[in-house]
Amino acid sequence: MSKLPGNAGVSVLGDKSLEFYRDPVSFCRQRIEKHHSRVFQCRLLNRPTAFICSVQGMRELLCEKSNLFLKDPTDLMTNMYGDTIVTTNGEEACLLRLSLTSLFTGSCLESSTDYIDSVSDRCLKDLSNSGEPVCAYSAFKRLGTELVLGLFLNVRAEEQPELYQEIAQLCTQHWHGLISAPVNVKVPLWSSGFSTALDARDKLMDIIKDKLENDKHGFVGSLASLPLPDSSSASQHLLLFISALIPKALSSLLTSFTLALSGNEQMRQQALEEPDFLHRVLLEVQRLWPPFIGGRRLADQDATLAGFLVPKNHGVIYVSHSVHRDPEVFHEPDSFLPERWSGRNAGQEHLLCSFGNGPRGCIGTKLTDVFLKEACMYLLKHYDWCLDPPSQDLEYKWLPVSRPANTPTISFTRLDPTRSDRSKTS
Ligand code: HEM
User: Fold this and answer.
1) Which of 362, 398, 402 to mutate to test the pocket of ligand 1 (most atoms within 8 A of CB)?
2) Whose CA is nearest to atom 30 of ligand 1?
3) Are 147 and 171 in contact (CB under 8 A)?
4) Cβ-proximal residues to 286 (8 Å cutoff; 6+ apart), any chain
5) pTM for the complete prediction?
6) Structural domain tally of the chain?
7) pLDDT tens for each residue of 202-259
8) Which of 194, 296, 311, 405 could form a disulfide with 397 if both were Cys (CB 3.0 to 4.6 A apart)?
């Protein structure tokens, strides 16, 4: 068992949070090179923290040894969303997962598919109308927002445009508080953005509680009737589910998909004709451009990860971007190669962590899969697309949710429905 490479530094002065939040990818890359190790330590959020950038380390942390590493109940997520499953541990977390998972699987998921169809059609049908290049990220974020507000709150943009706008705006304000706080490490939770966010949260909670009391159908109705630990649990979880976090993550993946296939007609055609190939394309999209940088835990006792000692009370962060580019598992790790998922990496989806992994992995993966495939198929069936202008700076920013820092513009051209090749599937 070896000591973690690197230095956890002295309290406050040795803290590297700002450097990490500015550019987490370079932060990790530099240290991996310096220490010749994909596991190392630094001071993050003023706590000695092990950084996990290897597939083996991630699997041990999230799967085999997950019981030794806890969610942090004082995490920023608790301040923004209240007590939810995200920051809960032990038996309570197990029971919550059991209850909530039923909302995102089986018949509940099946009953969502018509709405997913209709919202994809409504939000994506006009991409080529202006004849000008469009900012696809914004269009996809609108789609994600319509999806979560319609599905989880029964508020549909076309039926209640004013209420929809009000809630969407409150979600944005709430979100800005979440992202304004972590950089103020030395004066935690103090910023004007943060107090605006708390006001927005209170207004959202009023709307949510009203819905839970009076709306008996759909997701809200099912959530209200679940056995949950206390009376505020349903409203706090609903706040989490409708927050800007999920639309941004969906938009991130759709944007990366669009960019990866932009100008590549052959790959688009294959993705349209072969569901397995589309699946492999989407695996490769989430491998290279995971929406979230990773997740954080606290060591509940001394433990080892990938052969290194992680002392009790150390923070641990898995960095999905770096895990996904571990050359031990993914050859040519920086290349977009969907075929790796039918070759060398066939059957290895469990080595990804875009949606977490193990017993605390994402409970929304099935819903996300259905939604992404529907939206991607819509794009493939109805459009050709390319970057416009062809040369743009596509450098990604990775926090709070990944996307190209300068929003790319894309020209969509409607496919001629009479064209023999693609018309078969239209
Ligand atoms: C592109 C979409 C999404 C991405 C990339 C994503 C990603 C993630 C990740 C990385 C985690 C694990 C965090 C950790 O290890 O600390 C997670 C957990 C979670 N996700 Fe998602 N998620 C997505 C969509 C959704 C949706 C649609 C829902 C439900 C509405 C959802 C609900 C949750 C919940 C409740 C947890 C916490 C589970 C637990 O702590 O036991 N996610 N997600």
Assistant:
1) 362
2) 241
3) no
4) 253, 352, 354, 355
5) 0.94
6) 1
7) 999 999 999 999 998 889 999 988 888 888 899 999 999 999 999 999 999 999 999 9
8) 405
